[in-house]
Amino acid sequence: MFVICNRIPVAKGHEAEFERLFLERDDSQSQHPLKSFPGFIRNDVLRPTREEPYVVLTYWDSKEDFEAWTNSESFREAHRGRGRSEIFAGHPNLEIHEVIKSVVRS
Q1: In angstroms, what CA-CA distances link 65 with 26, 79, 87, 106?
Q2: I want to staple 90 with a disulfide (CB 3.0 to 4.6 A). Which of 9, 28, 57, 61 is the partner?
Q3: Between the CA of residue 11 and those of 45, 55, 57, 64, 89, what are the distances in Å?
Q4: Residue 106: enclosing H or E segment and its boundaries?
Q5: CB atoms inside a 10 Å sphere around CB 38
């Protein structure tokens, strides 16, 4: 499993606007473009508790599945017009990690 970590710096005072980009994307959630994409597992949007970037985590079966998503028309549509540049405090930092161990509550 691969986890994509996108650290997104948001300009002070624009946090609510940034969050709305995700919260208002799909009311039905069943229509979210990621949900039907092969290899997609899960997507989490994390709000910082200190002055740090927001973090968007996306879990994939494989790195190839993630790359297929980023090269897809669904990806382009999902990211088209996604916020005004002034809400961002810099460029996002994308990290790709392979899970080597996972512990879950039983």
Answers
A1: 22, 18, 30, 28
A2: 9
A3: 17, 14, 20, 32, 4
A4: none
A5: 12
Per-residue pLDDT reduced to its tens digit, 19-53: 998 887 665 556 778 888 999 999 999 999 999 99
- Please report the DSSP string for 9-32 in residue order: -B-TT-HHHHHHHHHTS-SSSTT-
pLDDT for res 6: 97
Chain-centre distance for alpha carbon 41: 12
Summarize pLDDT for 3-21 with one digit per residue, the tens. 999 999 999 999 999 999 8
Q: In the prediction, which pLDDT does 83 show?
A: 66
Per-residue CA distances from 84 to 52, 56, 63, 75 (Å): 20, 18, 29, 18
Cα(55)–Cα(94) distance, integer angstroms: 10
CA dihedral 90, 99, 102, 1 (to 10 degrees): 100
Q: List the domain boundaries for the chain.
A: 2-98
Q: 2-98 belongs to which CATH class?
A: alpha beta
